[in-house]
Amino acid sequence: MSARTKRIEATRRARAFVILSTLLAAFLSYPALAANPTSEVNTTGLAVTDDTVTVGILHSVTGTMAISETGSVQAEKLAIKQINDMGGVLGRKIEVIQEDGASDWPTFAEKSKKLLVKDKVAAVFGCWTSASRKAVLPVFEQYDGMLYYPTFYEGLEQSPNVIYTGQEATQQIIAGIDWVVREKGAKTFYLLGSDYIWPRTSNKIARKHIEKLGLKVVGEEYYPLGHTQFNSVINKIKLRKPDVIYAIVVGGSNVAFYKQLKAAGIDLASDKWTLLTISVTEDEILGIGGENIEGAYAAMKYFQSLPNPNNQAFVKAFKEMWGDEIVIGDVTQAAYLGPWLWKAAVEKAGSFDIPKIREASPGIELETAPEGYVRIHENHHLWSKTRIGLAKEDGQYEVVYETDELMEPDPFPAGYQ
Amino acid sequence: MSSPTSRAFATRGEILAFATLAVLLLAVLPASMEIFRLNLFGKYLTYAFVAIGLVLCWGYGGILSLGQGVFFGLGGYCLAMFLKLEASDPEATKIQSTPGIPDFMDWNQLTELPWFWVPFESLGFALVAVVLVPTLFAGLIAFAMFKRRVGGVYFAIITQSIAAILTILIIGQQGLTGGVNGITDLRTLKGWDIRTDEAKLVLYYVNAFLLLGALVFCHWVLGTKFGRILVAMRTREDRVRFSGYDVASFKIFVFCLAAALSAIGGAMFTLQVGFMSPSFVGIVPSIEMVIFAAVGGRLSLLGAVYGTLLVNWAKTTFSETMPELWLLAMGGLFIAVVLFFPNGLAGLWQSFRQPLMHAIRRHAPAGSVVADAAPEGGTR
């Protein structure tokens, strides 16, 4: 072979290499650009570019609710970071605009409108209390946004613009009461709670279920949010000696309630008393103190101590991002599901358009959920299991029971209204 | 500020200041921002009604009320009840156990409309109630207090406890009032959708005109003999009484007037924001409203409007740019106002403008401003 032919050969190889690598590059970027041009996956003018998509996070980071909602913010940011590390959604990195609801319902309404109208976010992860959700709901319905709402709540709602990643009331209550009747032979119940719609609706469902089972409610009482004097109800409880104290006290009142119970000699760890709550997660125990609530039972869908591999990986990642001291409660886990369920819906729909996500959402399942496995129901709530945890002194729950089957979400339970 | 002896309705400077505000509200703001921001400013302007009411009763009358949220809330609730009933027609609520009643009543197992809700099916009644209910309530409180010569800090504390009581009452009676969620999801006013952009624009203008009207009215009130008695009462109540005036009646009147203004603000709030909740009734919002007036300058009607706009605009802007730190920024703003500008924006304007004017006219040296500055009024 002459030197000339060698040169030609080399040039040809080089040319072939260039062509090949161009083709390869084109092929690699193909899924991001060619398959999903922004004009096709975003026909309604959301904040989606060729390589980013903007979402909103709307929780209280100031005010009385900040202590509860911070966990949700952390979980949502963790999920978004993990999704971005995997390549984002339809080849687009997620960018976050965070707004502060400031524990104030009108502020929630204002900020949600800002996120939807000005920022054109593709989805919002946020709200915690029912009041904040009720305040933003008309905004989401008017501007057709999509809200992923993490908190267990009273039900009686089913908006096309909300995916409820927490439990509605029956999913927490019915299996819990069945369990306590079966395991503890409970016959009498004393219902109490904070005075707003969630505890009232929940106790209404609990009462109907208890009476259906032919058992008895011996007392039902409500206290204003922030109430700290529970002596009178504790005296009544001591007098009537119910088999089960069914407590739905929320927020700061919990600290006073459990401390006063203990001080009054109601030792939850003894066989004499059984307390079942649906409002105390690991987050609340931080404030109450493990020694004050040791021995109480909680009905939730998630506890930090769940032994499955999904959860172990989740807890590890959460602590890596937010510090070792952190505890993870039921709502925090539900908030973590939000971005993942949204990603799955966008990918199933092949589009960021809200109507398409709405259509794609029912039936979406998440095998990697820390709580195990969840699936979105036609009614926009999640199928999930009910679990009973026993509070321990170190502030964690020990899971003592879980339902065999996923509980069907039923926001308008017939016969319980 | 008009000098007490001036007979004219307004000085040239006052007319100019008023015209500036009118141009700002009616032309500059609507032209310079999109409807979302304008709607926010519309919301801030509803608080301005409360602030100018406070200028009358606190700045001039010396009656510090820490419960103006009560009247703002009552006015707002009266209109919200009408709007909620309109939004709860049997067709829209057929999913409920009892269609045709507001959704929160259904959740609380009510099966028929409570008696006091029934008249609110009429818009006319609701509009009258917006003004009358809070005013009568204010009259009742004021009658009970001022006839017994309760005043000053005691009165402030009592208004505060009334705000707390009303909040607890509303939250506790959630079947009747919507509880802590408030009355939400208001849609139409006599079939006119209040949620559209056009409606927001119309409501903004209605609100701005009402506010300008209220300012003119309050200015007129302060210029009458009544206005001078107010100032006299604030400074030396006993002398006014010894001069033969029935001090209590004047106080009752000014307190009722402030309440009526707050109530109109509340009703406009409900229309523009689309819901009403107890979070506007309680102690915190009531004190916030006093802050609006204080920042603006409690002796200046126009200052109160600017103060309200500034504080709320700062609140929105700070919280959008630094969601985790914005409360500190707000706190800093309030401390700065109290420390450096005790007479608020209006005081700042006075001490800046007047030396300037004097310098231009080459009249008296800047020092003579002091004589025109606001008298240090106590709360009695």
- Which stretches of chain A are low in confidence, meaning pLDDT under 50 for 5 or more residues running? 30-34
**Would you tell me which CATH topology of the largest domain in chain A applies?**
Rossmann fold
Largest sheet of chain B: 2 strands, antiparallel
> What is the helix/strand order of chain A?
HHEHEHEHEEHEHEHEHEHHEHHHEEEEE
Counting H and I runs of at least 4 residues, what is the number of helices of chain A? 14
**Helical residue percent of chain B?**
55-70%
Integer tally of domains of chain A: 3
- Low-pLDDT runs of 5+ residues of chain B are 1-6, 364-380
Can you tell me the CATH class of the largest domain in chain A?
Alpha Beta
Tell me what you see in this structure:
The complex is a heterodimer of chains A (417) and B (380). In chain A, β1, α3 and β2 form a beta-alpha-beta unit. Chain A starts with a helix and ends in a 15-residue tail after the last strand. In chain A, the strands form 3 sheets. Chain A has a 7-stranded mixed sheet with strand order 7-6-8-9-10-14-15, with helices on both faces. About 1% of the residues of chain A have low confidence. Chain A is 44% helix and 17% strand. Chain A folds into 3 domains: 28 residues; 194 residues, Response regulator (Rossmann fold), CATH 3.40.50; 148 residues, 3-Layer(aba) Sandwich (Rossmann fold). Chain A is built from 14 helices and 15 strands. Chain A is of the alpha/beta class and 417 residues long. Chain B is mostly helical and 380 residues long. Chain B has one domain. Helices cover 69% and strands 1% of the residues of chain B. Chain B has 16 helices and 2 strands. A two-stranded antiparallel sheet of chain B has the order 1-2. In chain B, β1 and β2 form a beta hairpin. In chain B, α3 packs antiparallel against α5, α8 packs antiparallel against α11 and α13 runs antiparallel to α14. The radius of gyration of chain B is 22 Å and the shape is globular. Classes of the chains: A alpha/beta (417), B mainly alpha (380). Chains A and B meet through β2, α4, α5 and α7 of A and α2, α6 and α13 of B.
